[in-house]
Specification:
The complex is a heterodimer of chains A (about 525) and B (about 350). The radius of gyration of chain A is 24 Å and the shape is globular. Chain A is built from 19 helices and 23 strands. By secondary structure, chain A is α/β, with parallel strands linked by helices. In chain A, strands 16-20-17-19-18-23 form a 6-stranded mixed β-barrel. Chain B is α+β, with helices and mostly antiparallel strands and about 350 residues long. Among the domains of chain B are: about 5-80, Ubiquitin-like (UB roll) (Roll); about 315-355, no CATH class. In chain B, the strands form 6 sheets. Chain B has a 5-stranded mixed β-sheet with strand order 2-1-5-3-4, with helices on both faces. In chain B, strands 10-11-12 form a 3-stranded antiparallel β-sheet. In chain B, helix 2 crosses helix 3 (about 110-120). The radius of gyration of chain B is 28 Å and the shape is elongated. The chains are: A alpha/beta (about 525), B alpha+beta (about 350). At the A-B interface, helix 3, helix 11, helix 13, strand 9 and strand 10 of A face strand 10, strand 11, helix 6, strand 13 and helix 7 of B. Strand 9 (about 240-245) of chain A pairs parallel with strand 15 of chain B, so a sheet runs across the interface.
Chain lengths: ~525, ~350
């Protein structure tokens, strides 16, 4: 997030696009609801599904799946034509505006209605709410990113925010809400193929020299493979060994048939986890880890706040903290590494990651600190880009709408879109072992609109078969008005009804993110 | 604009801002006024009348939680009149419910018990007449015993004003008044999303964490503050430990950012995995097609040899690692360092995209 969670409550307008936040980050969801109910903020929801937040919205735009870029362009078209733009901000803080403006010209509300199905007048109303607000916050999540045009949609969000001068101000911002406890930290720490900690490029000679000196080895300059490329390389036999720590691609990755073949094709698969997950069951070696309650360390939350976790109970059996396992394995492989505690590792991070330089255990004992925090006197950063963007001027990108890779046709007439439900988390290795959560949501459900259900003769609780070009799953139907007609929604928590047997592994060309939010399926009574 | 007001509480001359209540000013200055229904950050309702104080020249006792301060106000929090009124309120509450501390989870952490003790009430002057509601135990998360409910409404306000789940409210009137979801449904049959905020807010034993019942009394529990392992909000919470096990999760608004004492169903009730018998306890190595228990030494040697031989034969780029958005910063740092410095490849990623 460019801004902080607490700012959401006190902003004037919120545009929540592609984010079912009340189920995925309920505490932020409550923050949005308080903004509306208690402080009079206006809320625009953009989502094909009738998500719980719709009940609180001043206006709900319901685009066809995969048409976010068109909707955002429509909003900007209205803002441009009605003069709701922040002229001075655009002149002094941004560049690329003219080319951007030319591209936006054709996205009239009427044209956008043709693409997205959102009524032109609703586009106008929503644009006025966002454009007229003194400060406005954009919230988005995977509903924006998990498309083959996910990067385009994120850039469109940034364009919209800059157009109205909403970046670098309190209560504004472009705010992706992170879905996993430490996905922010994993990125910050350089668990990515192209960057060292704090986003220092592996291809940069300067950065490499710095880390070579610190670690006492020579380092490769060529950026590595992304997760999907890793699976493809394993499938093709180019990759021989894979070490997986705390991930479960046999549920979480698209086109699971392909993933399984890839993992089975490896010479060695090492899986380090707290349970014998679907992925660990395919491993040659399984290493038992301590869970969050059994070790010390830090997580970085969605607003870049670094906070402590503290050991509360002992790990079972011989399980060890992941950091201990890695450092013992490194030592075994001839690279003596030894840390007395997690805090000692943070000391090393402080010295190598400039944005974490001032984030010490001592300082985050009571309340976390938000990076960038360049030294131990610095209070941390509540919101980014205050006077300058990271690159200097904010860059407007000229973006055209592109359809999703796989659209419904005669054979596969439904959209399939996927996500999470309130009571489960990701591949559900933790939540499905929690008694209460399973009372609330014991088995997977495929949501289908009542009109579609009627046509297909499907009733609540019937078993249905959902089939895509890649696979087929049987699952119980939930006949409910949440999805629009022509769209099925399924969660990815349950291995018995693994929706990722169906999803399309088509990737965004830049973000390399799979198109989980749109593929084509057929539905039959099983 | 921000003119200060001067007033006297219990003989102390104090400064306050316009709009502050007597209770806020007193608490801000270390003067104790007991309350049962006050909940910071929500509407002041003045329901319980325990916070009454005497104000000079006022016709009657006033509820300090609702009364804004004014210039020259003289407040007494501890007069005989005040104490008698408080006693009456507490005795009425005591006698209108089943406040039996023997098996109550809140024994030792109960605001009504604290008040009875503070006011030195031997027994209520009224006959005890519990309403006789059935105890609701139809879900495994929240147990509801309305016989202990004192109708303070804190659960209602936290549900509606802080969490904005809009599930709980009062129903019925007078002595039949009760708190609950619409249509008097059990929690499990209602729209309740089991964030558990109502349980944290309940000052007595009406709402308790069911799985923690009889697993440790308040003074036996060790609270360890940590960060929730689920979504990216990073809620601050306390794991309540008894006998080496996590028995419940509570939180505290004083922890501040980012959740100000709020949680969701996963943070609150999603911790059974920690001590689950399915947890991996030893390394496993596949032998003859089956995963069999092994020692750490065997596992490390196996991996080290295999990775070394792949590296030699096919180069470091034929090895890759997936780090984890579930693990700590320190672990992610070490993992990428291991892949880059020990294996010698940049093939490291994690599931940020999934």
């Amino acid at each position: 997030m460019t801004n902080s969670i607490e700012e959401i409550e006190f902003t004037d307008a919120i545009l929540a696009i592609g984010t079912n936040t009340t189920e995925n980050h309920p505490v932020i969801g409550s923050c949005v609801k308080r903004a509306v109910r208690r402080h009079g903020a206006k809320l625009i929801v953009v989502d094909p599904r009738k998500i719980p937040l719709v009940r609180y919205a001043n206006i709900w735009l319901r685009p066809k799946p995969g048409t976010n870029v068109a909707v955002l362009s429509g909003l900007m078209n209205v803002i441009l034509h009605e003069g709701l733009l922040a002229k001075e901000y655009i002149e002094t803080r941004t560049e690329g505006f003219d080319t951007f403006k030319e591209t936006i010209e054709k996205y009239t509300p009427e044209y956008v209605e043709e693409i997205s199905g959102v009524p032109a007048d609703d586009i106008r109303t929503a644009a006025r709410i966002y454009g007229e607000a003194e400060k406005a916050s954009i919230l988005y999540t995977m509903g924006v990113t998990q498309h083959t045009h996910g990067t385009d949609a994120v850039k469109s969000c940034a364009n919209l925010a800059m157009l109205c001068g909403n970046v670098g101000v309190e209560g504004g911002g472009v705010n992706p809400l992170r879905g996993q406890n430490n996905v922010q930290g994993a990125c910050d720490m350089g668990a990515l193929p192209n960057v060292f900690p704090a986003y220092q490029q592996v291809a940069s000679d300067e950065a490499r020299t710095k880390f070579e000196k610190a670690w006492g080895v020579s380092l490769p300059a060529k950026p590595g493979l992304t997760i999907m490329e890793i699976m493809n390389a394993a499938h093709d036999g180019d990759l021989k060994g894979l070490y997986i720590m705390g991930e479960n691609p046999m549920i979480s990755d698209p086109d699971l048939t392909h993933v399984e073949a890839a993992l089975k094709n490896l010479d060695i698969l090492v899986v380090q986890d707290i349970f014998l997950t679907e992925t660990a069951q395919l491993a040659d070696i399984v290493l038992p880890s301590a869970c969050f309650a059994e070790k010390d360390g830090t997580f970085s939350n969605t607003e870049r706040r670094v906070q402590l976790i503290r050991k509360a109970v002992e790990a079972p059996g011989e399980a060890k903290a992941d950091w201990q396992i890695i450092s013992e394995l490194a030592t075994k492989m001839g690279c003596a590494t030894s840390y007395a505690s997690a805090e000692k590792i943070m000391d090393e991070i402080n010295s190598l990651a400039p944005s974490y330089a001032g984030i010490t255990y001592e300082r985050i004992g009571e309340e976390g600190i938000q990076w960038p925090c360049p030294n131990t006197e610095h209070p941390g950063t509540k919101y980014l880009h205050k006077d300058n963007f990271s690159r200097g001027l904010g860059l407007f990108s000229a973006i055209d709408y592109r359809p999703s890779e796989e659209l419904p046709d005669d054979e596969y007439p439904f959209f399939l879109t996927t996500g999470r439900v309130l009571y489960h988390f990701h591949t559900a290795t933790m939540t499905r072992r929690s008694v209460g959560l399973n009372e609330r949501y014991p088995e997977s459900l495929a949501e289908i609109n009542p009109a579609d259900a009627k046509k297909l003769g499907i009733r609540e609780g019937d078993l249905v078969t959902v089939t895509s070009r890649r696979g087929s799953v049987k699952v119980k139907a939930s006949v409910i008005e949440t999805p629009p007609e022509g769209t099925i929604f399924m969660n990815f928590h349950f291995s018995e009804a693994a929706v990722n047997l169906l999803t399309n592994p088509a990737l965004d060309p830049i973000g390399k993110i799979p198109e989980y939010k749109v593929c084509a399926v057929k539905v039959e009574a099983a | 604009m921000d003119q200060k007001i001067s007033l006297t509480i219990d003989g102390k001359i104090l400064e306050a801002s316009p709009g502050q209540t007597i209770l806020e000013v007193a608490r801000g200055n270390g003067i104790h006024i007991p309350t049962l229904c006050y909940y910071k950050g929500t509407t002041n309702v003045g329901a319980c009348r325990v916070c009454v104080v005497e104000v000079e020249n006022a016709r009657s006792l006033v509820a300090s939680c609702c009364m804004p301060v004014s210039q020259g106000m003289v407040v007494m929090t501890d007069t005989e009149k005040v104490i008698n009124a408080r006693k009456l309120v507490v005795e009425l509450l005591w006698s209108s419910g089943d406040h039996n501390c023997l098996q109550c989870e809140k024994n030792g952490d109960c605001e009504l018990q604290d008040l009875v003790y503070e006011l030195g009430i031997e027994k209520p002057r009224f006959d005890i007449d519990s309403p006789g509601y059935e105890i609701e135990d139809t879900n495994s998360m929240i147990q509801r015993d309305l016989n202990k409910c004192i109708l303070c409404g804190k659960c209602i306000r936290v549900c509606n004003e802080i969490q904005v789940h809009e599930v709980l409210d009062f129903s019925m009137r007078g002595s039949n008044a009760k708190v609950g979801p619409a249509f008097d449904a059990d929690y499990i049959d209602s729209e309740c999303v089991f964030c558990g905020a109502c349980v944290d807010a309940c000052p007595v034993g009406a709402l308790t964490f069911k799985q923690a019942r009889f697993k440790g009394r308040p003074w036996e529990l060790e609270k360890v503050r940590t960060t929730c392992p689920y979504c990216g909000v990073g809620c601050q919470m306390d794991l309540n430990i008894s006998d080496g096990k996590v028995v419940k999760v509570t939180t505290d608004s004083e922890y501040g950012q980012p959740n100000f004492g709020m949680l969701c169903s996963k943070g609150r009730f999603g911790m059974n995995f920690i001590g689950n018998p399915d947890r991996l306890k030893t390394p496993l190595i596949r032998r003859d097609g089956e995963l069999k228990e092994a020692s750490w030494e065997e596992a490390y040697s196996y991996i080290a040899e295999k990775f070394a031989s792949i590296k030699e034969k096919d180069g470091p780029d034929s090895i890759a690692g997936l780090s984890s958005a579930r693990c700590t910063n320190e672990e992610n740092y070490l993992f990428q360092k291991f892949m880059r410095a020990v294996i010698g490849t940049n093939n490291v990623d994690h599931c940020a995209r999934l």
